Amino acid sequence: MNKRHVIELSPSGKSFEAGDELLLEAMLASGLAVPFSCRRGACGSCKVVVAEGAYRAKRLAPGAPQPSYPLAANEMLLCQSHACGDMRLHIPGWSLDTPALVVAAQVHSKRALGPDVIELVLMPETPVAVRAGQYLKFHLADGDTRCFSIANLPDEDDGRLVFQIRRVSGGYFSEGILGGLAVGERLHVEGPFGACTWQDDEAAPVVLFATGTGYAGIKPILLTALKRDADVTLYWGGAQSADFYDSAFLDHLMLEHPRFRWHPVRSSEGRVQEVAMSHGHQWEQAQVYACGNGAMLGQVRIHCLEAGLPSHRFIAEAFVASGRSSAGAVSLSFDPVWEKVGPRYSLDGMLAAREKSIRALAAIASQLKVGMTTGEALEMAARQLQAMGASHTWHPTYIRFGADTVRPPREGIDRQRRLRANDIAVVDLGPVWDGYEGDYGDTFVFGDGPLHQACTTALHEVFDETRQAWLRGLTGRELYDFAEQSAASKGWRLARNLAGHRLADFPHALFESKELADLEIPPSEMAWVLEIQLCHPTEPVGGFFEDMLMLQG
């Protein structure tokens, strides 16, 4: 008799029944959205905390590998466990209720901050969970949207959302709609989005750059940094004194926080990056955030990196044109069978997850040290992802040194292998950021081994050439046939067992697990990851690179 047990999920209070089947299968059958991916006990996506009740481990076939994901004493994997009775479980960092992406909000107040800047305060009807530095999309009556940074910390402001919006001559929203909005009027906003968010590095001095109302996106990061009692410096660029519309507040902050300084930089006096470079910051240790026009961001980044700032410590959000006329607007159309996505899927969310994954990879790579074991590197990577705000990993983090770089991820590695002075290393990340899957991997060379250098050169050439072939309309299968020929022409072998995969709002495994190399249609943008693993035909040297297929990389 298949006795049914009641499994309660805290703190939601929702429950499902499970019998002899695996807990993951029972939960999915009940219709509850649960994080999962590999089903092999390797990725940890379906990890839960056991608050009450007993369970037994899945019985493995003879010779089958043991689940490799490390667990605490009170944790288990849903894909590897059966209930022995009633249970109460908690899924860390996961809500069973799909957060509303579009919420209604009422106009709470509106006031002028300067001659052409309006503060708009909204009270959402549903609380919006916001990370410092994110933005929302405003949905307009004609179906168009506008994006504005959230200029406060809603959790500390009774849930209110504050925006600082510059009136633009002829602007459909800023001049046509904003002026007519009355208190109590209802709007719809979507999000939050954005990758320029607080990184929770308490030790680093913080340097902030903003131009114009880019200050709105920087202000919550400033407030968060001051709560951590960090050294904080703000450079705010504008054309005239009136552009520094929050100067009284900033002056007051300097009195309250001796470790905070801000500098208004008029365009007639120079550029924000030029002023900052003259102030003797310790750029090697700094954490930089920047928000404003793209030209400013590019110049600030160049100056900061030349001064010694590690690249992963430069975090920025550029202003782009709003509305349908935006040159950056993308219309996505997915195949209804092979490219299904979940209710939260959005272009902004996927782009932010990609940006955070790239940044995380750079941060992890910068901490790889000669003499470190693979096991130590994996532990470091887990700490880094957690510190940066990843809620899960939808696939395990893979780090491989030396001869292990030719091995596919599922084959296993030597955790005691040490990184040598002349070596090659692969890092492959699959973090989940704010409900969206990131996936990014690359190869790094230590020392000056010519074969290692040749591997990374060929690797990126094969990826770039294959991506260009995708733009010509090749199917997924044709892409990997092309990549195989490209690799062979350069003297390397393509590992076809790493064959690309879907990417979506987490978990994409609910929708489709088909490999890109098996796809008989041209893959759509923002839905697939192109994976390239090269192996030398005779030497134990390999490389790996992956990124989401998109028109502009």
TrEMBL record:
InterPro entries: 2Fe-2S_ferredoxin-like_sf (IPR036010), 2Fe-2S_ferredoxin-type (IPR001041), 2Fe2S_fd_BS (IPR006058), Beta-grasp_dom_sf (IPR012675), Cbr1-like_FAD-bd_dom (IPR008333), Creatinase/aminopeptidase-like (IPR036005), FAD-bd_FR_type (IPR017927), FNR_nucleotide-bd (IPR039261). SUPFAM superfamilies: 2Fe-2S ferredoxin-like (SSF54292), Creatinase/aminopeptidase (SSF55920), Ferredoxin reductase-like, C-terminal NADP-linked domain (SSF52343), Riboflavin synthase domain-like (SSF63380). Residues 100-199 form the FAD-binding FR-type domain. Keywords: Iron, Iron-sulfur, Metal-binding. Signal peptide: none annotated. GO terms for molecular function: 2 iron, 2 sulfur cluster binding; oxidoreductase activity. Residues 5-95 form the 2Fe-2S ferredoxin-type domain. Gene3D superfamilies: 3.10.20.30, Creatinase/methionine aminopeptidase superfamily (3.90.230.10), Nucleotide-binding domain of ferredoxin-NADP reductase (FNR) module (3.40.50.80), Translation factors (2.40.30.10). It comes from the Bacteria. Its cofactor is [2Fe-2S] cluster. PANTHER family: NADH OXIDOREDUCTASE HCR (PTHR47354), PROTEIN RFBI (PTHR47354:SF5). This is (Fe-S)-binding protein. It comes from Pseudomonas fluorescens.
